């Protein structure tokens, strides 16, 4: 699950962070003309802090017309504050520079948090127009701050003298974080180098934009046209009707159209009986963007080279070294070591799965070895033979309110002592959203939490956490946090029954939620989830596993009508089936992560690479070149890596999961669901945010660095620690 574009765009200016498991919204759309606005400023609710508890936004007073004037005024106030700090005639001090910066941009932060949250949860035409109009303005605003030489000179003075200023540890950390942020943006370069950086940045943004446009166009272009209904055997009637409608809409009347989704593997491959058609679908997916009008191979080669050039200008050996420096992993070697240490176990398990699949092919009368387009089809048959799981039967034991209150909230209460009290009096931005006030173990009120769990039009897919107000002792603010999901809601009066996957996602997002709500730092820049992207999924993934804890599950997994606990046999099937196909899932992920790392390990003087040859060599080098298991993404449609946001960063999901699995196993070895364990974890991991290096936090909690054993066990790839 990735940080949202909002988080990426805003974190350069504000301590604002979130996570999402879906593709970030594109900002590449053309910008419509300015949305006219004549709202009187005095009635604009963003012009002053909200008077509601903890400055929770007054959604009942906010209108779309308020956004642009508030952004304009917010940016103008922020820039005036920054100029005043940069041009202060007094000598730079921690107080008059960094503390002043932390206090600046208050109004812009207020409107930005509300706007970007609502454009994710409740988008409409007008909000999309505003978003397009804002994108270049916000980027320029952030450049104007990051490249201000007078401001940087003050930050550098404080940074250079930080050990003589008698600063506390968090303040020292703040000085380091500011200095590194500015340096990494190019603040220390000569004017000539800055010009070169700007040119590379411009080319980079043109190429990544072209990459994503190609990807969109190509995905449409390569949809597979099928002549007859017979070829679609295996699909449901509803899917066949949808394919017929899609073909009609695309001008292929009387035919059927199968669209291609974003990963190399395609969901429809698990269903199609026709092997020839499976091959066509898979090849359309795997070879996309490699030829024709939307060929992205030259873009991929140049992007890799360009990033290496940019890294070199900034004084780094390659892009991965530059990128990793700001992460918990610190170096490319650490990432290669982490992934490499897991390859043997993962490959071994995948080969076992492949053997099962080949056996199933024979059993079905096939006379061939599995190819990539066969894997999901025969894996599904193996799964049915092994587990015989009826999803509808399972769901009867996972009723939404019970999962949330008797499962997730219950766990937080047992582990941390916190309580969630409904606050129906607080305004919400949609009738499906429910507000809670959160109380600490000693009864102190500590946060507002919005629960926004149901799917609706205008809401982005996926699940994420975000903040409306971040915690800061300096600013005197307490957290106002939201969790967002896309659970299909039952009709009025009927219970919403959910899958076990949705159940663990509720726990996951609340893991991010407590990371925000338990934040206990002075400076907003360092609060809560404002940690590196290879750490941010740790607290959320850690929370997931409590869903199946023996003291938690019986408390909520009860039949929605009878209240009977879930039968043990059924539960065992649910849990065992979760480790099914994990070799394949893990290997395709790791192959993509290694490919991403290899692209960004090229040096600036390396020649432009041939994409296919480079890919094949990279996979072979790391021993992950199993023909039947291609990488989850190939370079020409690997938007995490090539689109920019997660370049040299796709490994981060697994890095976080290693921490989560290791931490969970450690807690279980010390008595499990106890207040003592909860408080220890809260104090060392959740409260500190980014106020100290994340590995220091982990070691303070765990007593040592993590190992990958617990992750392999979590994924069912290993049975015990050796
Ligand atoms: Zn997450």
Mean pLDDT: 91
Bound small-molecule species: zinc ion
Specify the CATH homologous superfamily of the largest domain.
Neurolysin, domain 3
Please give the alpha-carbon distance between the first and last residues. 30 Å
**CATH topology group of the largest domain:** Neurolysin, domain 3
- Taken as a percent bin, the fraction of beta residues is 5-15%
CATH class of the largest domain: Mainly Alpha
Strand line-up across the major sheet: 1-7-8-6-5-4
- SS field, number of helical segments: 27
**Name given to the CATH architecture of the largest domain:** Orthogonal Bundle
Structure, explained:
The protein is 51% helix and 6% strand. It is mainly alpha-helical and 722 residues long. It has four domains: 29-204, Neurolysin, domain 3 (Orthogonal Bundle); 223-287, no CATH class; 315-365 and 581-722, Neurolysin, domain 3 (Orthogonal Bundle), CATH 1.10.1370; 394-577, Orthogonal Bundle (Neurolysin, domain 3), CATH 1.10.1370.40. The strands form two sheets. Strands 1-7-8-6-5-4 form a six-stranded mixed β-sheet, sandwiched between helices. Strand 5 and strand 6 form a beta hairpin. Helix 25 packs antiparallel against helix 26. The protein is globular. The site of zinc ion (ZN) has 6 residues, from helix 17.
